[in-house]
Specification:
Alpha-Beta Plaits, alpha+beta, 3 helices, globular
Length: about 100
């Protein structure tokens, strides 16, 4: 089954809840997260301080998942976190492995 990289971009206040939700799912073997800055966001989604700085703080999660699991995760996120401002994209993973 082909794998995909699922990227989730979320507002920082949702980070702890999303980490907990992801860790509770048995179909997710692991994930990576990091602090990122969003540039070019619409002003209506930015605080005044973010508008002045020209960027908004976000957290990015990266999950390497089978395509079917990525669909299931997105469906679950829609039910649990709908309206929370999560932005996502999925891209095919051309290769994966571990260098030893």
């Amino acid at each position: 089954m082909p794998h995909q990289m699922l990227h989730l971009i979320i507002p920082p206040p949702a980070e702890d809840a999303l980490v907990e939700w992801l860790l509770e799912r048995e179909d997710i073997p692991g994930f990576t997260s990091s602090a990122v800055s969003g540039h070019g966001s619409s002003e209506r989604s930015m605080t005044t301080a973010e508008q002045v700085a020209g960027r908004s703080r976000r957290v990015m999660f990266m999950l390497l998942l089978p395509e079917e699991t990525a669909h299931a995760v997105l469906a679950g996120l829609g039910g649990e976190f709908g309206g929370s401002g999560i932005h996502y994209w999925r891209v095919p993973a051309i290769a994966q492995g571990r260098l030893v």
